[in-house]
Amino acid sequence: MTSKPAAAAARATVYGYPRQGQNRELKKAVEGYWKGRVTADALRETAAGLRRANWRQLADAGITEVPTGDFSYYDHVLDTSVMVGAVPERHRAAVEAGALDGFFAMARGTQDVAPLEMTKWFDTNYHYLVPELGPDTVFTADSTKQVAELREALALDHTARPVLVGPVTYLLLAKPAPGVADDFQPITLLDRLLPVYAEVLADLRAAGAEWVQLDEPALVQDRTPADLNAAARAYRELGAPADRPKLLVASYFGRLGDALPVLAAAPVEGLALDFTDGAFANLDDLAAVGGLPGKRLVAGVVNGRNIWINDYQKSLSTLGTLLGLADRVDVAASCSLLHVPLDADAEREIDPQIRRWLAFARQKTTEITTLARGLAQGTDAIAAELAANRADLASRTGSAITHDPAVRARTAAVTDADGRRAQPYEERTAAQRAHLGLPLLPTTTIGSFPQTNELRTARADLRAGRIDAAGYEERIKDEIREVLSFQEKTGIDVLVHGEPERNDMVQYFAEQLTGYLATQHGWVQSYGTRYVRPPVLAGDISRPEPMTVRWTSYAQAQTTKPVKGMLTGPVTMLAWSFVRDDQPLGDTARQVALALRDEVNDLETAGTSVIQVDEPALRETLPLRAADHAEYLAWATESFRLSTSGVRPDTQIHTHMCYAEFGDIVQAIDDLDADVISLEAARSHMQVADELAEHGYPREAGPGVWDIHSPRVPSAEEAAALLRKGLEAIPAERLWVNPDCGLKTRGWTETRASLENLVAAAHEVRADLTPDGS
């Protein structure tokens, strides 16, 4: 059976593309600039070269309309803050002194000035810099970056479409600036912001833009009538000028719901919608509002967030239905390809047949152009591609890697009792205090210590065969002893071994679990110059042998102080992987939880009394719609408890979370039933401590007093002030003292100074609380 061609040729496009380059050239250039080894001009030239290469790759693949403005040295939301002049007062001097240095000061802070807060971009693992706004904020247009990048693309003869964060999403992502009342709503600044956007749009039109894309992903979340009215007003005003570019309003990450009729009725020329599995209801909703007569529809039918190949037949069916609902239908990924690695063909160590199941950014552009060609010319034009696609999908479905009968039998046998500690918290905490003998306000770190150049070199030497396994292990032992010695001299109470043997908190475990695939070049931006290689969760999960017991036991043998065992929790193992899409997430989480349960039990048997199971992704994986929260949180918290509930009462279970909004999941944090939780709190000024107190959280907590995502060293006085603020919400007998997050990305100089100040702060505040300071 063949399909007829569409009436008009469909455009193929994307909303954004990976920024880093094939070999992470952007990361190296930016970090070189920070260290003074790369000049500003050299950094700009590297960036321009990466943009040119991206556009050329897209055009060569058949993408007929390339995005501009999606490139950033650090973060596209921060770029938007610069574009609209929303620079905090404390950063103005740095911005005025130099655009690049001011930009990076806002992102990273300086020794004297704190950076902007950082949090997760919707339910992804990308972090954005949170705009700080207040009643006195004055917006001013600065379209320099956006216009320059558009002109670059046009000069290379590309059909280009600038991409901007939309005004409604920008304001809904913002927070009240320091000193502004917490109940201030940045969305109230919309009327002040819209003329600035109109000015930027006019500048882009003058520079040659036919279309401009305005991203409004915040509208796929639950929105109030006031928010929807704001969206209607925004696009009524931006659509009014006669001399403006055509406007394409884009949403992604889910179903638009009540916002769809608002945008469909707006005086804009096009909408871009997500039509992947998680947002397929957009199709029915679009039909219900009568479609988009006279408008352009960009259909996101290729998943921009995961790495599995597209089902061409399914996507073509969707596209065929959409043809009757808009004036023209173009083909795209569901969101920016920023969230996937660059090229699956580079993964030569993955079995070639399995590699055919994978689609990274370059492969997704091929999928988009193939679908656009099939839509425009009919399926006969892509018959070979359809046949190959069917074979690859069937190969994955029938592969032995995807189904392990033993794993499935074990998960089916899990009972409710398996996910509950045998003793209530009150009994456990008494046993743990007697066993551990910790002081008031105990100090610890989150887990990792700096990954030095020597460690990275040793790891590279092992891979290259320049040293053998025995030589590498001696280097790891040396590092562990050094980290332990520093902690003991500094006076930290609960130690960590520093994780020198680990490349990444998810990848390290994935490489030791069946069902996972590791990539060699699958880098994805997490924030700024921090890139991760999410492993691929391809099949059923089990643990062939212990993963951490050896090194944790070695560390414990070097000291009389407790050393934490460090594991990554099941939700984070899913969230920071490219997860399989052929079964419910809860089923996969349960498999991972059982593998981790074996590890937790083996650590306890080996003498580890404190075990931390990190779940930093618990909040970021929360569905964007409240109606979906309960189901997710039920399996997420159950999987954590399944991992940790098989231990004795005197074994203390910790967990850790960072860089997310925790207020709306405090009950879920409670439901984890961890004995101690550490959370990011420094940039948000202990907000989470107040949220825990308001909830009545009954267990121990360590809201961070050192923002480790900034190079600045907090003074002992600063840490003590945050600690005292924490004490206003959490009783001293339940308060821990720790950094916000692990120290892998920090240098040893700042780590030593910051931890010494952290311990000094704990001693100072402890002395205020107890006569002998103990």
Description:
- The protein has about 775 residues and is of the alpha/beta class.
- About 40% of the residues lie in helices and about 10% in strands.
- It contains 28 helices and 20 strands.
- A hairpin with a 2-residue loop joins strand 13 and strand 14.
- Helix 4 runs antiparallel to helix 5, helix 23 runs parallel beside helix 24 and helix 27 packs across helix 28.
- The longest helix has 22 residues.
- The chain is globular, with a radius of gyration of 26 Å.
Gross morphology:
globular
**Proportion of strand residues:** 5-15%
CA gyration radius, whole angstroms: 26 Å
The percent range for helix content is: 40-55%
- The assigned structural class equals alpha/beta
Structure annotation, total helices: 28
Averaged pLDDT: 95
Largest sheet: 7 strands, parallel
Oligomer: single chain
Overview in brief:
With 774 residues, the protein is of the alpha/beta class. The strands form six sheets. A seven-stranded parallel β-sheet has the order 1-5-7-8-9-10-11. Strands 16-17-18-19-20 form a five-stranded parallel β-sheet. The protein has a two-stranded antiparallel ribbon with strand order 2-3. The longest helix has 22 residues, at 40-61.
